[in-house]
Amino acid sequence: MTPYEVGLLVHLLGALLVFGGVLVAAIAFEAGRRRTLPSEIALVLGPARVGALVVVAGTVLVVTAGLWLANEIEQLGAPWLLASLALFLGSVLLGAVGGQRPKRARKLAAELARDSREPTAELRRLLDDPLSRGANYASGVLFLAVLVLMVWQPGR
C-alpha cells in the first residue's frame, strides 16, 4: 500500500465515521421527539452522545487525511477544496449549534425521570425547537454538498 492509498483509506474512514455519527445522532433525536415519558426520552437520546463523539473523531481524520491528500495531488489551494472545507466547517458548526437543545433535553429528561416527574413544557420545547431542527437539517445538506464536491472535484 502506498502512502497515498493509506491517506485515502484514512480519509474515507473519517468520512464514514462522520456520516455514521451524524446518522446515529439524527435517528436518536428523531426517536426521542416521538416519546412522551422522560425516562424513554433520556434513554433514546443517550446514543446521540456517542454519535457526536464519533463525528468529532471522524472530523479529525477526514480533515487531516484530506489536507494531506490534497497536498499530495497538489490541489491544496484549489477552489473546490477551499469550498469543501468551508462547507464542511459550516456543517460542523451548524451541527454543534443544532445539537445543544437536544443535549439539554436529554439532561432534563434524565433529571425528570430520576425524580419520577412528568414531562414538562420546557422538555417538549427543547425537543420540538424549530431552530435546532433547521440547523441540524442544514448541516446535513452542507455535508452532502461536501460529498458532491469531493467526488466531482470541479476544475481538476
Short précis:
It contains 6 helices and no strands.
Description:
This protein has 156 residues and is mostly helical. It has one domain (3-150). The chain contains 6 helices and no strands. Helix 3 (79-98) packs antiparallel against helix 6 (130-152). The longest helix has 35 residues, at 38-72. The radius of gyration is 18 Å and the shape is elongated. The two termini are 24 Å apart.
Note the main attributes of this structure:
156 residues; mainly alpha; 84% helix; elongated
What's the topology here?
Elements: H1 3-33, H2 38-72, H3 79-98, H4 100-114, H5 121-127, H6 130-152
Distance between the termini: 24 Å
Percent range for β-strand residues:
under 5%
Provide the structure class: mainly alpha
* Subunit organisation of the chains: single chain
**What's the helix-strand series?**
HHHHHH
Q: How confident overall, as mean pLDDT?
A: 94
Helix percentage range: over 70%
Total count of domains: 1
Largest sheet: none
Query: Count of DSSP E strands?
Result: 0
Radius of gyration over all CA atoms, rounded = 18 Å
